[in-house]
Amino acid sequence: MKITDHIDLLYPNKEARERAERRRIQMRDSGSLFIKDLMLEDIKNFITLTGSEKLLALCEELSDDIPTIEYRLDCLEDHLNNPDLADSFRKVITELSVSLVSNDNEDVGAFYDVKQKMDELDGFLTSIAAINGIYKRIGTTLKSQAMRGMFEFFLALPESDDYKEIAKTLTELQGTFAKTIRSVKVGINFDANMNPDSAGLLEVGYDKIYPKGNILEKIVYGVQKNKETFSGEEHLNSLTRHTPADIDTALFRELTEYTNVFAKRISETLKSYRSSFFSDIKEIERQLDLYEGVANFIKGVRAHGMKMCRPKILPASERRTVLNGAYDLVFYKEMVMRDPSAVLTDKIKTNDITLDDSARLYMVTGANNGGKTTFARACAICQVLAQAGLFVPAEYAELSVCDNIFTHFPRDEEAGIDTSRFTNEIKDLKVIAQNMTKHSLVILNESLQSTTPEECLEIAKIHTELFAAAGVRGLYVTHLTGLYKAFEELNKKDYPTKLDSLVSVAGEGDERLYKIVRQPPSGESLAMSIYKKFGATLDDIKSGDVNG
Hints:
Elements: H1 14-29, H2 34-37, H3 40-47, H4 52-61, H5 66-81, H6 84-100, H7 111-138, H8 145-156, H9 161-178, E1 183-190, E2 196-205, H10 215-221, H11 238-241, H12 250-275, H13 281-303, E3 312-314, E4 321-326, H14 329-338, E5 351-355, E6 361-366, H15 372-388, E7 396-400, E8 404-408, H16 421-435, E9 440-445, H17 453-470, E10 473-477, H18 487-491, E11 499-506, E12 512-518, H19 527-534
Parallel strand pairs: 3-7, 6-10, 6-11, 8-9, 9-10
Antiparallel strand pairs: 1-2, 4-5, 4-7, 11-12
């Protein structure tokens, strides 16, 4: 039995899981690099250590199935609002896993090993009872279909035939093992030549069988009346009596082999019971780890004075993005690593953005080191986390699902013929153009900067028109401020995406404010202010003989 055949915390039904499998293949084949460019590998463990791989898998999936996304968001809210899910339920699931995921490949050497496996299965029954007790405490507070379904699954188990059979068998076995087995009767068959041919266990006894002895021994040792006795010599087991090995007989060796076979039979029966339940218990643990980890992360973010919100998920057809108070989780991580106890409200600047009919693609210009890349990455990470079914780093968010996120960030130049940075950029942008649709999100970060400014500007105009004609949403971080002059003509062409400008503004004395404002570009990147602060001057040139 698989729990996920009945209830899955990530997908509301079998059809949703199958759709997700197709989606993963589609995303893998699309050539999108958003996981790398948005540095999601770098922050997955920061968000949740135990659930990091599951988190990354959901980001890579980039689900566009709104019922699945809402299903996950509801489940996450339950984990945020019900501490008992982490404090009690998750612990019981761990105990349940331990009781079910036994090492069935180990040899069963004696009834002691069988007793251990019985205890493991008894732990299973105890865990089910504990889960039902937790539901009585918090069941009415659960809102998500996922968590209600999980508890309903466990509540129904005691009524199943398999569960009843396990409980009955364990009760009988425990009754037997509760008594001290002191002896067994073994029947041995011989062939015509009186060679032992076969043997079988006849009876389990709870009293020892005593040596028959002679009259003197009966008087001296007081063998009790009505106690069964051996008809021949009593052989002693050197292992239990700590006597020389030559007292061992084939009887004990044969009996040991037989009891081991019998123990293995009981073990196999218990194994079949165990395998009939929850073959995918580890998958459920991973799903719970994801939700618990993300819920704890959100609480931590809020403790640092920052916001995380449940996004409002819109249909792809609306092609709309609204983010208020958004910020970059990569930068947030850096700040927390510097000072884990800091309140970051005044240290991390948040920004707003709307992508809709008035403008869906913005060029982003302004001061160097003014937060342009951080802003673009923040917007894209919000989109990824929303479609993963998780909260986003913003005060408020409305996001239409997109079919893909295409990113283009600066890369190291490769060596070889026809592999210049400019050549690679053009090839990368062509792949994006061939795969994007009106439901795609495109994030370009300082693309087309590796040839002459005049040529870069002309090629940027070509690609900007391609984006407008395709109808994408997106941001283009660039220093090509002259590109804005082309927007008026492009917007007259009635393309499905309108173009506009955002600027990272500076304060007095070129102070970086890290605020992104909708306005025409200023034509200045304020690079000179950075140079004055960090660059070389004549004073840095050493005079005199360099060898002196």
